Amino acid sequence: MSEPVTIVISTEGGLITGVVSAGVRVEYVVINYDVEGAPEEDIIQVPQGNGKTEDATYMGDMAEIDGPWVLQVYETVKAFNEGSRDDNA
Hints:
It is a single chain. The chain is α/β, with parallel strands linked by helices. The protein has one domain (about 5-85). The protein has one helix at about 65-85, and strands at about 5-10, 20, 25-30, 45, 55-60, 65. The strands form two sheets. The chain has a four-stranded mixed sheet with strand order 1-3-5-4, with no helix packed on it. The longest helix has 21 residues, at about 65-85. The radius of gyration is 17 Å and the shape is extended. About 0% of the residues are buried.
């Protein structure tokens, strides 16, 4: 089996309820920059690409694989976005 795609999902105060792939193995890390109330031992320093770091908490796992559902959601969002652009023309 091929190596999984590795992605980082970042949020600040948001709620991630799941990560689902359309058929490829995806290894992910969710970085949450909202550390208020987090136990000190759960806070890590996340590189920001500019030589600086920011406090964050994290979780990681392998994404669930459900190709038909992912494609259905993707097509629904795509159709909505295309319709929204037409409304703004």
